[in-house]
Design brief:
Layout: H1 2-16, E1 60-63, H2 70-81, E2 86-90, H3 96-99, E3 104-106, H4 112-121, E4 126-129, H5 135-140, H6 142-162, E5 166-168, E6 171-172, H7 196-215, E7 218-224, E8 226-228, H8 241-251, E9 254-257, E10 265-269, H9 270-282, E11 292-294, E12 298-300, H10 302-310, E13 317-320, H11 324-331, H12 340-346, H13 354-365, H14 368-374
Parallel strand pairs: 1-2, 1-4, 2-3, 4-5, 5-7, 6-7, 7-11, 8-10, 9-13
Antiparallel strand pairs: 10-12
Helix pairs in contact: 2-9, 4-6, 6-7, 8-10
Length: 375
């Protein structure tokens, strides 16, 4: 295309000519490369997602796959679409069982070229972007959180748009702030978070919706509540106490909570979370009235969770040693999510309430001996 060659030539000349005696600017190659999807004869570029009539099953790439959710989602998707149609990726070496359970590759979301090659070589059609630094970890290392959560997202958006992918990026209760309505918190309201994690997630929501409206990117996003899982250790989130209590209850019979006993937050068992992710990805486009949805299952406080745990382990000792940074974060977050739109648009419905959650966690963690002793 003539316009592509002209733009590439002009960009190259600008980059190679130092201005005002300064050193030449270092600009990523992707900023001066063009594709038929990025330059069209019209005033606006137009990206188009792959039609599912063109393929039997989606070919899925999951970034940040060794986190709390990636392995579980890969297992769910492989059951539905086939083992070889779901590729798990991360920058860490996977455990043996994960490595042998299905395709796994190294993928660094900050390496645009590597990520693009993976998408092209594996003919990816769905991309699930789980790579992120969580709330408490992000506050401890803001530059890294900014790079991973924002710069990495930009790479994902550009590649998803260029190659017509269906893109899922999770958001969070952390996308809201102290000026947001907290009980309940609707889909659309003032957000204004005060953590780099929350700011990056609002950025992801808005950028994804912008790419959808501007370029036709099939962007889909769910705001997750606190996710509780027996399969993974806490990973630096403010709601981690709701996982840690089960491990400590079984191991030592003692639990020290870093949030105040009356701190109410929305929560969800991981199976509900993963199922919601699959359901929104499979939902027909015409059913989606928006691109970012709240989803919810239950809301509880540390003392309410402890009381439910003590029904099975009456001897559990719970103390409180407040982490002021995490408490400030929790106090700025929703107490309860309004997920009416998700329930009405694509039929979202949770399976696990608090009693079922506690029983399921103990079943997985293996507390039978301690419960038997307590009985």
């Amino acid at each position: 295309m003539p316009v592509v060659r002209v733009l590439s030539k002009v960009a190259k000349q600008v980059l190679l000519a130092p201005a005002c005696g300064c050193q030449p600017l270092a600009v990523a190659v992707r900023n001066i490369s063009f594709s038929p999807r990025q330059v069209t004869s019209g005033t606006d570029a137009s990206f188009h997602s792959v039609s599912f009539s063109e393929t039997d099953h989606p070919k899925v790439l999951i970034t940040g796959g060794l986190g709390q959710l990636g392995v579980g989602l890969a297992k769910l998707l492989r059951k539905r679409f086939g083992k070889n149609n779901v590729i798990l990726s991360d920058i860490r070496k996977p455990p043996s069982d994960v490595f042998h359970s299905g395709p796994f590759i190294y993928s660094d979301i900050l390496d645009y070229k590597n990520l693009r090659e993976i998408v092209v070589n594996n003919r990816i059609t769905w991309l699930v972007h789980y790579s992120a630094l969580l709330s408490a970890v992000g506050e401890a290392n803001v530059p890294l959180a900014r790079a991973v959560n924002i710069t990495g997202l930009h790479n994902i958006l550009d590649i998803a748009a260029e190659h017509g992918l269906r893109l899922f990026v999770p958001s969070t209760i952390g996308a809201f702030g102290p000026t947001s309505p907290r009980n309940p918190t609707p889909d659309l309201c003032v957000q204004r978070p005060r953590t780099i994690y929350g700011v990056s997630k609002v950025h992801a929501e808005l950028m994804g919706e912008y790419y959808h409206h501007r370029y036709g990117l099939d962007f889909r996003c769910l705001r997750y509540p606190g996710i509780i899982s027996a399969d993974s250790q806490p990973g630096g989130g403010t709601t981690d106490y709701a996982v840690q209590i089960f491990h400590d209850a079984v191991k030592s019979g003692k639990f020290e909570c870093n949030l105040k006993p009356n701190t109410q937050l929305p929560m969800m068992y991981i199976d509900d979370c993963l199922r919601a992710t699959l359901e929104v990805m499979e939902a027909p486009t015409e059913t989606l009235s928006m691109r970012t949805y709240n989803i919810n299952a239950m809301s509880f406080t540390p003392e309410e969770l402890a009381a439910e745990v003590q029904k099975q382990l009456p001897d559990l000792q719970v103390t409180y040693n407040i982490d002021h940074m995490r408490q400030a974060i929790a106090d700025s977050w929703p107490m309860n999510f309004d997920d009416t739109n998700a329930r009405n648009d694509w039929g979202w419905k949770h399976d696990y309430d608090l009693p079922e959650l506690v029983q399921t966690m103990f079943n997985f963690i293996g507390s039978d001996s301690r419960i038997a002793q307590a009985s």
